[in-house]
Structures are given as C-alpha cells and as structure tokens.
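Sample 1 of the test manifest.
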Amino acid sequence: MTDTLTLTRPDDWHIHFRDGAAMRSVIADTARVFGRAIVMPNLKPPVVSVADAEAYRNRLGEATAGSAFQPLMTLYLTDNTRAEEILRAKASGFVHAVKYYPAGATTNSDSGVTDLAKAAEAIAAMEACGLPLLLHGEVTHSEVDIFDREAVFIEQHLAPLLRNYPRLNVVLEHITTRQAAEFVAAAPANVAATITAHHLLYNRNALFQGGIRPHMYCLPVLKREPHRLALVEAAVSGNPKFFLGTDSAPHATGSKESSCGCAGIYTAHAAIELYAEAFEDAGALDRLEAFASFHGADFYGLPRNSDRITLKRETWTVPQQLPMGEDFLTPLRAGESLRWKVV
Ligand code: NCD
Ligand code: ZN
C-alpha cells in the first residue's frame, strides 16, 4: 500500500472564492495546495467586464500576497456581452474563459443568459479568438425533473451549440451524469469537462442519509450510483478531456441549514485529499496526477506547474466549522475523518 504520494502541483479548474471578508477566509485553503484556479465570476454583481475581472484579481492577489498562487479570471456571460469585451478579455492575458449560467440555474445566476441565441455575437468572438466557454450545463425549465436537467441540456443546447460553433473550446463544468461523460468522451478535442470530488465520492443517497442533509446539496445535484460510477471511470481513464474542478462553493452554515438552503458544497479545505480517496477507491492513485495537474493546463494552453506537493496517508478529522468572514461554513466531511493529508 502506498503511504506517500508526490504529484506535480495541481490546479483547480473551477472554484468559487466569493469576495470581501468571506473570500479572505477561504482563499488560503486553495492557495496552500493549488498553483492556479479558474475563478468563477458569479459575484453580486457578477464579473462582466475585463475591468471588473482586473479589480477582482487585484483583491484576490492582495489576499494571497506572498504565495505563488495565481487566480485565472473569467467573465460572466450575459445577454449583453459584446464581442469587443471578449476580444479585450483575450488580449488581457489574465481572463482565461467566459462562464455561461442559464438565467436562474443556481447561486447568483439572475444575470445569466436567457437564450443562447442572445449571446451569439460573444460566442462567435470566443470561437474566433480561442477563449473557452465554460458551461453550467443544466436547463432551468420547471417542467424538467431536476435529476434530468444536465442530460436535457446536452441534447437541447450543447449538441446544437457545437454544431453552430465547431471550433469553440468548451468545458462542460462539474459533470454529474453518464450522459455527460459519454458525450464529452465522444466529442472532438475542443470539448472537455471538469469533475468535482463530491460527485466522484457520493451519490444522491447522501442527500437523505438518516434525514435531509443540506451540506450535501449542490447544483448540479448528486445523481444515482451508475452516474457516479461513470464519472469515476472518466476521471481515472487517463483521457485528457477530463480534469479537476472542485466547484468548492462556500455558503454560511445558516444559509444552508434553512427552509430554502443554498446550493454549494465546500471542499477546498481538503480538495486534493478527497480526490485521492476517490482515485484510491477506484484502484487508480497512479492516474491522479494527470487528472489533477496535467490535463487542465494542457487544455487551457498553459504550462504545467513545475513544483510538487506530497500527500501522506494519515487519518485526520475535518473541523465542524471553518471561518467565513464574520460567519462560519460547514465543510464537506465536517467532524468526520479523511485518510490523506497534504504535508
Ligand atoms: C455554486 C455557488 O454556490 O456559487 N453552487 C453550486 O451548487 N455549485 C454555483 C454553481 O456552480 O452552480
Ligand atoms: Zn460552480
């Protein structure tokens, strides 16, 4: 049995840092382990311009001063995003992608796109200049069952999008279904996907284990076991289309333990350790490095990190609460144990 694991320093290709005091509380969890992270733009108000992204990047930089961590910025696609903003983003060198949220799909997505056709000019510019489009791949129609929203999005929106923009670089974010894993695997090389640790480790039973579990609720919601198994298979396959994106999404404990709790699971405190568990359970620890440290950088056309991190087999207990600004959040596995630890 392997007791230490040394990897090229990984990157997180999908994270929510929030802003202000909350951001300053959580960002160290990521910066301690990851070299870079693709930073989601769903602030209130969202990051819609290169100027917004630059200001946010400066705040993230101040909060991580003295560390080598690099935030990779994204813009929030709206019905009003103009091609010239896309070209400015590409030219900036620090905006690495544009995020698509269907309006109303998830936390802070009110400014999202109401119809992909309205974003045609911006998407054409992304295709032309090579700026990736990151998709929250769920439809929002209330008549579609919540467990089917990703699969329906793939059929109704993703497949036509790729027919209209065949050279567009696309990342289907936080995939949760067998349909998504199969679609991405079969698509050309310009289509990739991120996979979270929690979707590799849990199926939807975790939402209802002995009672309702608000800290296991995220979007896209956890799915049935066969879907989890398909995600594990994709993650450990060695296929460069699949890479690490935690979707770590901090919410104060009180806003999750509520009659209408927010979507989002916090995993940044133990992200690589959680992935190590998932890969070890699949008998594929030797595949973790490529998934965590190579495939994402290669897809984004960035150099791989050159330094390394080491994990040790060591049982430790996750704190019940972690600070989040003036408040507290409940991390994944709160009060429970983990079997790997970054040294
Ligand atoms: C994210 C958040 O809280 O910002 N929540 C989540 O459940 N993943 C938004 C998102 O990525 O959907
Ligand atoms: Zn997210």
